[in-house]
Amino acid sequence: MVRILDKAAVQPRRKFNLATSFIIRRSPARSRLATIRIRIPAVNAQPNRVELVATIGVQGVTAIAQILFRIFRDGIEIFNTQQGIESAASEQNYAITFQAIDSNVKSGNHVYTVTAENLTANARADVVGPISFSGLAVQTRT
Q1: What is the pLDDT of residue 142?
Q2: How far apart (Å, rounded) are the C-alpha atoms in residues 75 and 134?
Q3: 24-66, pLDDT tens digit by residue?
Q4: What residue ranges define each of the domains in the chain, with the CATH number in brackets?
Q5: b/e map of 16-36 (b: 16 or more CB within 10 Å)?
Q6: Phi-psi region of 61 (alpha: psi -120 to 50; beta: other; left: phi over 0)
Q7: What is the band of 1 on the pLDDT scale with cuts at 50, 70, 90?
Q8: What Å distances lie between residue 88 and 34, 99, 100, 135, CA to CA?
Q9: How many angstroms separate the CA atoms of 124 and 120, rounded?
């Protein structure tokens, strides 16, 4: 049995648009893509999990960029994944979707943030949209 505790979703960019694109910053700097807030009640909320899903539209501009996507809860990294982004003369446009599960989150208000950073020198990738980020907190029964 599963009981919904909270849900949140944002979509800062609804579609692919080169006119509003921005460069993914070179690591160790990060580009913040989206933030949501999830509330876990103090009573009858354990055990639980927060299911997080992000979709980011990215375009390769030069070389092959290795992009590290991270999800943070309250400023602490809880998940990461890496994606290679090719550029001209190959695939250029990507809609990257990934999912993370944060288990047994303590009660209170939590801020989840998804970021991207470019790990590759002399390569460039841009966020071109769309960007969406959602979270669903559920109580689970064991």
Answers
A1: 56
A2: 17
A3: 999 999 999 999 999 999 988 999 999 999 999 999 999 999 9
A4: 2-140 (2.60.120.760)
A5: eeeeebeebebeeebbebbeb
A6: alpha
A7: confident
A8: 27, 28, 31, 34
A9: 8
Cβ burial of 38 (10 Å; 0-12, 13-18, 19+) is: buried
- pTM, two decimals, is 0.95
Residues 92-137 pLDDT 10s? 999 999 999 999 999 999 999 999 999 999 999 999 999 999 999 9
Burial 55-70 (b: 16+ CB within 10 A, else e): bbbbbbbebebbbbbb
Tokens of 81: 């994944």
**Quick one: tokens of 8?**
């949140």
